[in-house]
Amino acid sequence: MAYYLGLIFQFDALKLSISHCMLSLLFLLTATNALYFDFTNSNVICFRHKAVVDQDIRLLYSVNTPELYAKGSTSLNQRTSSVLLQIYDVYDAVVFDTQLSDRGELLFSPRQVGDYKVCLGGGSAKMDKSVGRMSLSIESHAPANDSVDAKRRQEEQTVTRLLAKAKAIDQQAEVIHTNFDRFESQISSTRRSVVVTNLLCIATYIGVTVWQLKTIKRYLIQRKI
After folding, report:
1. With contact defined as beta carbons under 8 Å apart, do 135 and 31 qualify?
2. CATH number, span 35-69+80-143
3. Which of the four, 2, 29, 98, 169, has the lowest number of CB atoms within 10 Å?
4. Reading across the β-sheet that carries 102-108, which strands appear in turn?
5. What phi and psi values does residue 96 have, to the nearest 5 degrees?
6. Where are its TM segments located (predicted)?
């Protein structure tokens, strides 16, 4: 039983060691593009990064990890355990803030294209004199292909809906045009009917007037007036 427990503990330790090695390898591969610098919590260090369309801002960081220090460097009791991260948008407004510690990866999705500021340090501890050492890599990161495909499908669906609305508007315009032609035809027919009716009324009035004059003339002749 003790033998099996020992194997389980060794296996867990091996998995932890492998995960730690993989994370260290990730930072080793990106170390060529990383910035290395010392900071204090009382000062602010800012970097600019231009956001690209349809891409995130990716931060790979390492704060006060052992590989950043050589022998004879600052004592451990003077090192800060974390650093404040703030991201400013193109309008110089804070859109994201968090505390960074140890090592890790952070993805930020900008809303606009343009220059963003990534600032470290500062915060509420203005008089904090603790120091730190950090490596930071800032780069543009394209989202996964499935996200791009989903966005493309969403755009295609939007275009399809707009085309359907445009077709419906065109059909409504055609119906309105047809109704207008029918209405104009009815107006023309009514106008002709009114003209013909007026002519008939005038002709009837003239005929009645002539008949009345002849009748009066005949009456006067008969009476020899």
Report:
1. yes
2. 2.60.120.380
3. 2
4. 35-40, 131-141, 56-63, 102-108
5. -160, 140
6. 194-213
Q: How far is CA 63 from the centre of its chain?
A: 33
Structure tokens at 112: 């606009």
pLDDT digits (tens, 9 = 90+) for 178-206: 888 888 888 888 888 888 898 999 999 99
pTM tops 0.90: no
Query: What confidence tens digit (pLDDT) does each residue in 26-74 have?
Result: 444 444 467 888 877 678 889 999 998 878 899 999 888 887 776 555 5
Which residue is associated with the tokens 């939007």? Answer: 158
